[in-house]
Amino acid sequence: MPILYGPVLSTFANKDGKKLYNPRVKHRGKATTEELAGQIAKRCSLTVGDVKSALDELPDVMAIYLQASQSVTIDGLGTFRINLRSNGRGSEDPAKVRANRSKLVVCFQPAFTRNENGGVGKRSLIDGAKCMRLDSDTIDDDNTGTGTGGGSEIPEAPEPMV
């Protein structure tokens, strides 16, 4: 199933003073923990209950490591880490820097592999993705943003609930 997108008018003008249309993903639903557990259980020897139990505990276990200033890497998925965002409210004096002037955020970097020439060869979660304009039936192979030119076969995902 392709990633659906449509045109959205920018709220900001470009350097020529024109507001331009840009592509934006049209989200159609949300996968629940139960749905993920069911799909994972179909692919391994664990029961749906075992998988759901592990998924339910994952945020708590990750929080232990993240709050200890460690990053959490899940092979094939990516890396989570905690960052502080100051939003321009810095200080000229390093002695006056305080965390309460910033916001704690969790950042995620999808896993990727590099090919022989140093470029990105494969990116987790989006490698091989195809895009389709919502009001069209044409797959957009040239603008997938995968860096690999598409080409890999995508397994059929379950139809999301609308």
What labels would you give this structure?
three-stranded antiparallel sheet; 2 helices; 162 residues; extended; four-stranded mixed sheet; 30% strand; alpha+beta; disordered C terminus
Q: Per the principal axes of the C-alpha atoms, what is the gross shape?
A: extended
Distance between the termini: 15 Å
Give the structural class.
Answer: alpha+beta
Secondary structure tally, helices: 2
Strand order of the largest sheet: 2-1-8-9
Helix content: 10-25%
Main sheet characteristics: 4 strands, mixed
Radius of gyration: 20 Å
Order of helices and strands: EEHHEEEEEEE
Mean pLDDT: 83
What fraction strand? 25-35%
- Secondary structure: number of strands: 9
Low-pLDDT stretches are 143-162
Write a structural description.
With 162 residues, the protein is an alpha+beta fold. The protein has a domain at 112-153. It has helices at residues 33-43, 48-66, and strands at residues 3-13, 19-25, 72-74, 78-85, 103-110, 112-114, 120-123, 131-133, 139-140. The strands form three sheets. The protein has a four-stranded mixed sheet with strand order 2-1-8-9, with no helix packed on it. It has a three-stranded antiparallel sheet with strand order 3-4-5. Strand 1 and strand 2 form a beta hairpin. Helix 1 (33-43) crosses helix 2. The longest helix has 19 residues, at 48-66.
